[in-house]
Design a protein that fits this description.
The chain has 299 residues and is an alpha/beta fold. It has twelve helices and eleven strands.
Length: 299
Amino acid sequence: MRSHTIAHYPANGQNPPITTNNVRGQDMKQKIITTMLATLSVLLLWLPAHGSENDEYPNRALYPDVKIITTDALYQNLDKSIIVDVRSRYEYDTLHIKGAHNIPLNSPQFVEEIRKLAAEHPDRQIVFYCNGKTCRKSYKAARRARKYDVDNVLAYDAGIFDWARAHPDEAVLLGKSPVPADRLISKETFKKHLLEPEAFLEKAHQPGAIVIDIRDIRQREGISLLPPGQEQREPLDNEALRKHVERARKENRPLLIYDAVGKQVRWLQYFLEQEGVKDYWFMQGGIKAYLDGLQSTYR
């Protein structure tokens, strides 16, 4: 029969006598509480860092199968890496990692060219990069390469801006290296040249304004901001745009440029700054934002 310790409690409200079982029980409770507090402390230390990483790299959680390489690790392993810029040719020509290959993710030859690089350099890892922490192209490129049996691939998801700031001697801006830190255009400086669609349109109607649509033919789909003759239509090419840029600068005329969704103009800004243009403006959100505004107005 199982034995029990019986404690007799006095009727005067005093604490009961301490027994061996009571001591053991209190010790056990104390150990449990101590363990729980220690575990909670570790979690509290881990959670902010984990959340911060997710905030800084919001797409990593969407591509858990993609291996990541940091800025320092890539710099230390440049001689062991084949670096591939998966952005557009214009973005690459504006700013890229020195020695990087340009193979746009949307190129029909993407897989073929990546396989060729892997075959030519079997002892090197292939590192994909794009514009940085909120851009998904580097992850998509790595996943696509692995789908077609190119396995030694990584994503440098910190992107071109972090690289140029950390290693200006290993970056190229408009054909020149190293890249001076003050030549990298901040988001704040970019935003200073943005106008809401309505304000952009108002400024476009002012006398002397030079308005340029830099969308490609497929993006236009017969829709433009202004009637023919009131705006110029040019491809996103610095040489094609040069005559308009020189005219705006020499004649002190405002230059207004819009694209499809407001992303391409950020790269064009480097060329405008290099050419000394001061009075230039972009439509925030591109013509998509303008059309969305019209739809909401007439609903």
